[in-house]
Amino acid sequence: MLKRVVIASIFLALNALFLTGIYFVFLKAPETCFDGKQNQNEQGIDCGGVCALVCREIVVGKEFQVTEIAFVSGGQDVYDVLGMVYNPSDDIGASSFRYLFELKDSDGQVLATRSGKSFLLPRQRKNIIESNLETTGTPVTASLTFQAVAWERSRGYQEAPAIGIYQKNYTELSEGFGFSQATGVFTNESSYDFRSIFVQVILRDSLGKPIAFNKTKQDTVRAGESRDFKLIWPNRFSGTVDRIDMEVDADVYHSENFVKQYFPEGLR
Predict the structure, then answer these.
(1) Is 19 strand, coil or helix?
(2) Residues 6+ apart with CB under 8 A from 264
(3) Of 265, 59, 262, 266, which is closest to residue 161 (Cα–Cα)?
(4) Per-domain residue ranges for the chain?
(5) In whole angstroms, how far apart are CA 88 and each of 54, 85, 260, 262?
(6) Nearest Cα residue to 139 out of 223, 79, 184, 182
(7) What is the pLDDT of residue 194?
(8) Contact between residue 237 and residue 212 where contact means Cβ atoms under 8 Å apart
(9) What are the DSSP calls for 115-165, one per residue?
(10) Which helix (H) or strand (E) holds 61?
(11) CATH no., domain 163-251
(12) Average pLDDT of 207-226?
């Protein structure tokens, strides 16, 4: 009986090996670098290992944080809106993302919307300003949301470009056009030229509350260049200006020389 069991086991094993060989030789499709599967010793689907194609890293950063949001009247039935955004990721930035402002009434009904596109470096905190949102009522709350974030891992450079703002000044106008103006001088202290930058100004009261804000676009800013700028508020606004915040928003992701220096080749 034992001899029969041994012979039967050997027969079954040989038969299994034979059938397995038939499957792999004649029936199973060969594993290749173009079969849409992660097999062989591939590190991803048809990439890495024995495949010549290098696997592209899937990069996902931390969720943006809205640390401040405010809106002020910009005239009859129009409002300006401000959102301060922070990217908490240490070495992952967003080369682009879509944002959406919404102004709502006391019932939560949307009165006005404004969308746009921006970017964020790792650990960067920046303001997003939109002006002249037309409404059909009086807004009570504002919200800021994000979508279509294109994450990218930075390589070495994780600070905003060195563009300083000097001679900051705010005055109310007694004659001419407008209620008040903010002026200053910015200097591109980096080694890079920029196709365009935005100078943003936020006026705050003694409690730090934003009471007015504005921005201006400056084109073709050369390395080492200094330039005067002026922003005008055409309509009177309430509150007393106690502090002037000014910052420069320069798109480093799409400035060709800057990106080649600090970000992986092939990303832009």
Answers:
(1) helix
(2) 152, 153, 155
(3) 262
(4) 32-59, 65-153, 163-251
(5) 29, 10, 24, 20
(6) 79
(7) 86
(8) yes
(9) EEEEEE-TT-EEEEEEEEEE-SS---EEEEEEEEEEEEE--S--S---EEE
(10) none
(11) 2.60.40
(12) 93
pLDDT digits (tens, 9 = 90+) for 41-52: 877 787 888 887
Structure tokens at 149: 């974030």
For the domain bounded by 65-153, which CATH number is listed? Answer: 2.60.40.3230
Residue 200 to residue 93: CA distance in whole angstroms: 21
Kindly tell me the burial class for residue 134, based on how many C-beta atoms sit within 10 Å of its own C-beta (0-12, 13-18, 19 or more).
Answer: middle
Cα–Cα distance, 255 to 105 (Å, whole number):
40
Q: What distance in Å separates the CA atoms of residue 35 and residue 16, rounded to the nearest whole number?
A: 27
Nearest to 241 by CA among 210, 200, 201: 210
Tens-digit pLDDT profile for residues 20-79 = 666 655 556 677 787 778 887 877 787 888 887 877 778 889 999 999 999 999 888 899
pLDDT, one tens digit per residue, over 142-164 is: 999 999 999 988 765 546 778 99
- Cα-based distances in Å from 57 to 26, 32, 131: 36, 21, 38
Task: Answer left, alpha or beta for residue 35, where phi above 0 means left and psi between -120 and 50 means alpha.
Answer: alpha
Cα–Cα distance for residue pair 205/169, rounded to 1 Å = 15
Pairing state between β 226-233 and 110-120: unpaired
The 10 Å CB-count burial string (b at 16+, else e) for 70-104 is bbbbbeeeebbbbbbbebebeebbbbbbebebbbb
